[in-house]
Amino acid sequence: MTSKKSTSKKKSPNQLDKWWQKTTIYQIYPRSFADSNRDGVGDIPGIISKLDYLQDLGFETIWISPLYKSPQMDHGYDVSDYYSIAPEYGTIKDAEKLIKEVHKRGMKIVFDMVMNHTSIEHDWFIQSRSSRDNPKRDWYIWKDGRGKNKPPNNWSSFVTPKAWHYDSNTDQWYLASFLDFQPDLNYYNPEVKKAMFDVLRFWLKKGVDGFRLDIFHAIYKDKYFRDNPFRFKYIVSENDHDGYFQSRVHTVNHPNNFAFAKELRSVLDEFDGDRFAVGEVAGDDHIIKRYLGEKKMA
């Protein structure tokens, strides 16, 4: 009898044996893609009606921009409930049907997942901003200012020169790496991490094949809240997120992000079917590579 050792073939490091390494992906923005009931807004039944068309074009995977309940102040990237579907798009039943119809055709489906921040209308933030001693207070990033009308430090958001926003109700500032209605979650709080991993599990159980992780390189920030150093660069670009005259050394690609990527990978590995995650990250090649590899995001 031939031993397994003598018959096994060593895989080439360049061998593409994962579905996500060789698939073709079509991104869908639900609001404008296909409107099934002619109310002027795209919806999930509309997406389902176009699956055969997308497959005929040669696409094997669809990536859906956020479908979750949201005030839609930033195209759904301001989530108010991760467990509900935006009513203008449909229902949970519609989402479940979409996943089944995609798989029926031998295709894959990837959901956009916004983990860095929520909407100010999310119940977590409503509780968090209600008082300093609320149990959800530490679910977001709150700090005292440096003085009257002075934010805690010099951090800028990715789209405006300021990342801190004053809340008169509790006389503190909250951090928002994008816009003021998108407060950042505090991943130094283990309850936050568990809550968001449970969100992933919820959708993985429903059959989602993976996630595109929005602004993943900003999940963790410097817990000492040190100022970002000056850099002579104002405009933020796709591959270089420094801007507004600062280098984001304390707010982007924090060392804890790489450990977090491993933890997230372990959540995906709880499920069969070779689940997939790709993070939105920017930086030098040697930094990007730290997110990749065995037991990491991809």
From TrEMBL:
SUPFAM superfamilies, alphabetized: (Trans)glycosidases
One Pfam family cited in the UniProt record for this chain: Alpha-amylase
Residues in Glycosyl hydrolase family 13 catalytic domain copies: 27-296
Domain of life: Bacteria
One Gene Ontology term of the molecular function aspect: alpha-amylase activity
Keywords: Glycoprotein, Glycosidase, Hydrolase
Entry-linked PANTHER family: ALPHA-AMYLASE FAMILY MEMBER (PTHR10357), NEUTRAL AND BASIC AMINO ACID TRANSPORT PROTEIN RBAT (PTHR10357:SF179)
Similarity comment: family membership: Belongs to the glycosyl hydrolase 13 family.
Protein name, per record: Alpha amylase, catalytic domain protein
Organism: Leptospira interrogans str. 2006001854
